[in-house]
Amino acid sequence: MNDIINLLDWVGRVSAALWLIAIVVGISGWVNGIRPALIRLGTGFAKRKIAIFAKGEMQSSLKNLLLDSKLFKSKNIIEIASRGDFSRAEQATIYLVYWPDWPDDMLELLKRKKDGTALVVYAPQDKGRIPQEVIDEINKERNVAVSNLRGRLLNDIVGCLITTGYI
Question: How does DSSP classify residue 140?
Fold first, then answer.
């Protein structure tokens, strides 16, 4: 009977040691993996600017989409409604472009986009598809997403906030 108690005592000690190691590894993984992404995301929501390239009713619709999520502040949104306003977007770290309003200016936007600036193109299919040659130019850039669905926009923007958080 005493041998069984000693055996169970050692099994308990080994089990406790394994649990302690698992806890230390888990905390270390969180600190090194998840924490930086959360910091980038928090900084992105608090400080980073989003330039919305859209005209008319779609401008306010996209702005309201961002504000209604309660993730973004109005002061961090820059509205670009005409080609003459492009220079206002220089301080933005994310460009949100409504494709039907800017089909002739997309190449100009790509030239103005900095390497660390993210670009999210909202191109609903019922408003016309992006030509393949423009898609090829967009594909040459880093930090770019094309969304055909309105519901994907927030996901793409949040993803851009995390992936371009090194700025």
Answer: T
Cα–Cα separations (whole angstroms), residue 61 to 57, 79, 132: 6, 12, 27
Side-chain-side CA neighbours of residue 75 (13 Å): 3
Give the SS3 label for residue 116.
coil
Enter the pTM of the model. Answer: 0.76
Cβ-contact 140, 165 below 8 angstroms: no
Using the Cα atoms of residue 14, residue 18, residue 24 and residue 27 in order, give the sign of their dihedral. Answer: negative
Q: What is the DSSP letter of 142?
A: S
What tens digit of pLDDT does each residue of 109-161 get? 999 898 889 999 999 988 888 999 999 999 999 889 999 988 889 999 988 88
